[in-house]
Amino acid sequence: MSVDVAALYEEGFGIRSVAEEIGRSYTTARRQLLAAGVKLRPSGGRPLQADPVADYLAGLYRRGLSLRAIEARTGYRYWVIRTRLLAAGVELRDRHGRPRKAVV
């Protein structure tokens, strides 16, 4: 059974999908994968990639608009704007418009 579980996981199935395929619980499927010597992938899904929308938002932000002003202008929610800017590598300003100080 371990060989089948390992093969499914190596094909790209997630642990939950493997568990459904073999009719076992998530924990059992994970244990079988570890027993088979499979190196598990990190959890949490794919990292958010920068995209054309993020580039557009970054352009607005670099022109001096605040996150709230961008929200009002574009209709995107505050947290969506913030997440996309951070994913694009934009350094956010503090409330007064100054660059944030590095945390030591």
Key words describing this protein structure:
104 residues; elongated; HTH_58_Actinobacteria-type; 54% helix; mainly alpha; Helix-turn-helix domain-containing protein
Fold and architecture overview:
The protein has helices spanning 2-10, 15-22, 26-35, 52-62, 67-74, 78-87. It contains six helices and no strands. The N and C termini lie far apart (50 Å). It has 104 residues and is mainly α. It is elongated and about 55 Å long. Helix 1 packs across helix 3 (26-35), helix 2 (15-22) packs across helix 3 (26-35) and helix 4 packs across helix 6.
Low-pLDDT segments: none
Mean pLDDT level: 86
The rounded distance between the terminal residues' Cα atoms is 50 Å
Classify the secondary structure makeup into a structural class.
mainly alpha
* Sheet with the most strands, sense and barrel status: none
Q: What multimeric state do the chains show? A: single chain
Order of helices and strands: HHHHHH
**Number of DSSP strand runs:** 0
Silhouette: elongated
Report the C-alpha radius of gyration, rounded. Answer: 21 Å
Kindly state the percentage of residues in helix: 40-55%
How many helices?
6
Strand content: under 5%
Protein name: Helix-turn-helix domain-containing protein
Pfam families: HTH_58
InterPro entries: HTH_58_Actinobacteria-type
How is the topology of this model organized?
Layout: H1 2-10, H2 15-22, H3 26-35, H4 52-62, H5 67-74, H6 78-87
Organism: Streptomyces canarius
Domain Helix-turn-helix: 4-45
Protein name: Helix-turn-helix domain-containing protein
